[in-house]
Write a sequence for this structure.
């Protein structure tokens, strides 16, 4: 079984990250040998500079975090990102259109980004933002659309999909086991599954992996990889 690091997309998307912190995050990703970094669009060039020759892919986001941009804007974002060297695009669906069940719009929106990515040889990961979707049927239809288009990944969350709770506070659930099972069940076998939001420990990562996840969006990458190293070391001593 490959190292857990090879499942991780190291997330560098917090709105407060400085250029110094983005550089440090890319250097950490290189050291850990994760699958990719998912970095702010303006920092793609920085990531490519640091990660050149490392085997760590450079990814970014499109329509982040709420997916409300016009389709033409998303396609333009995707084009600029690919031209800058991004090889993986995590795009957010138009949540309002999903809730409106305007499926023709939703499919055209996803396909516009996918077509740009495919032209540049980049991967497309479609973020559902499940915390905003109260009915399973909405998630199932998104799985069907993504399967029909042929995107490479479906993804649970942005990690920033905060909803107002009964007590007035805001929080998010992120990648739940129920959602992961549902998405795996209703997506074509060749479409891979990415869990993001709330995967913070090695136990979390191993749990979602067992549910069919092959990529994990995480900002706690160092702690997860370090915990795996300790676990392997302890196993060897037995």
């Amino acid at each position: 079984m490959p190292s857990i690091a090879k499942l991780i997309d190291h997330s560098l998307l917090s709105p407060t990250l400085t250029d110094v912190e983005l550089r440090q995050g890319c250097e950490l990703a290189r050291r850990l040998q994760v699958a990719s970094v998912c970095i702010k669009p303006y920092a793609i060039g920085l990531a490519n500079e640091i990660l050149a020759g490392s085997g760590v892919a450079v990814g970014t986001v499109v329509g982040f975090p709420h997916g409300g941009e016009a389709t033409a804007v998303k396609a333009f974002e995707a084009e600029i990102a690919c031209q800058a060297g991004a090889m993986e695009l995590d795009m957010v669906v138009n949540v309002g259109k999903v809730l409106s069940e305007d499926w023709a719009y939703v499919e055209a929106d996803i396909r516009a980004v996918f077509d740009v990515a495919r032209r540049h040889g980049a991967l497309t990961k479609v973020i559902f933002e499940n915390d905003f979707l109260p009915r399973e049927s909405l998630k199932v239809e998104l799985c069907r659309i993504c399967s029909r288009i042929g995107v490479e990944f479906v993804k649970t969350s942005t990690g920033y999909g905060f909803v107002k709770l009964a007590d007035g506070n805001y929080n998010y659930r992120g990648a739940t086991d129920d959602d992961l099972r549902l998405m795996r069940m209703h997506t074509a076998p060749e479409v891979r599954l990415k869990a993001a939001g709330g995967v913070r420990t090695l136990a979390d990562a191993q749990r979602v992996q067992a549910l069919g996840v092959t990529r994990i969006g995480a900002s706690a990458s160092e702690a997860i990889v370090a915990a795996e190293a300790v676990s392997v070391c302890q196993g060897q001593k037995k």
Observations:
- Residues 103-119 form the longest helix (17 residues).
